[in-house]
Design brief:
With about 160 residues, the chain is mainly β. It contains two helices and 16 strands.
């Protein structure tokens, strides 16, 4: 039994449901018949996890998650909880020259967002956020030289 979550709505699907589905491949996707109603379905677009992605049904976009029996077991045990990392400060990892600051006070930052460019040893290093947060203050301007460990941006 699979649990399929489409835009937040849970649907339970068995392998028999999948095997008996009336569908035909077309050059641009699939033609599916369900209870005498026809649907045009595009192939799913997935990211790193093939069990999540987006699909278009009759030109309407849906986000989906598929959970097999093992995913459901892990979920029921609470072992799939994601811990959110909150950024405290952006600290210079090495001495260098600030070439660009890509945020301003009050900006909400997500993990992986580019924050600033620091030139060190004739190389440009893009400093990215390691977690989520809001920019509280910027302590240096573009063109400033910083020492290793200097707090360049304070977060809250």
């Amino acid at each position: 039994m699979y649990k399929v979550i489409i835009d937040g709505e849970e649907i339970m699907v068995t392998q028999k449901d999948i095997d008996t589905m009336d569908n035909h491949a077309t050059p641009v996707g699939y033609h599916v018949l369900e209870k005498n109603k026809a649907y045009h379905v595009t192939p799913p677009k997935v990211g790193l996890n093939p069990k999540t992605g987006t699909i278009h049904v009759n030109n309407k976009r849906f986000r989906f998650d598929i959970m097999d029996q093992y995913d459901q077991l892990v979920n029921s045990m609470g072992l799939d909880a994601v811990i959110e990392i909150k950024v405290t400060d952006i600290i210079a990892p090495m001495p260098g020259l600030i070439l660009d600051i890509m945020v301003k006070v009050g900006d909400e930052i997500e993990a992986g967002s580019s924050i600033l460019i620091l030139e060190a040893m004739k190389m440009e290093n893009v400093i990215k956020a390691e977690g989520n947060g809001i920019v509280k203050s910027i302590n240096f301007a573009v063109g400033a030289t910083v020492d290793k460990g200097a707090v360049i941006i304070e977060m809250e």
